[in-house]
Structure formats: structure tokens, C-alpha cells
Amino acid sequence: MAAVKRWVRIIAGFVLIGLGIAGLFLPFLQGIAMIVAGLLLLAPEFRWARRLLEWAKRRWHQGRGTVRD
Prior knowledge:
By secondary structure, this protein is mostly helical. The protein has one domain (2-63). The chain is 74% helix and 0% strand. The longest helix is centred in the first third of the chain and has 22 residues, at 2-23. It is flat.
């Protein structure tokens, strides 16, 4: 059962990232929010997703004028 949950999380993460990329060009989808949600789902499984999510967090804090570790 754990393997099924893992695969559902992975598939859902990639689907959300795909929808998020489409949402960058379509006005009715929230692209960035879907990409971040997909990365949150994929981060426990993939190192590249964790690194990308950490990069996004650093960029968010820089844009808001705060710096966090």
C-alpha cells in the first residue's frame, strides 16, 4: 500500500507541475502555485525537486526583503 501512495504522490506531483507550466501561459490557471504544489509533493522523493523548492524559497525571501536560512 505504501508503494501505491508513493506512486500516486509522484504522478500527482508531475501532473501539477505540468498544469503549472501550462498555467504560466493560460490566464485561468495559477501556474506558480501549481508548480510549487507539485514540487512539495515531489520533494520527499527527488533531490532535484528539493533543490528547486529551496531555490524558490530563497528567491521568495529575497523579493520580500527578508533573508532566512
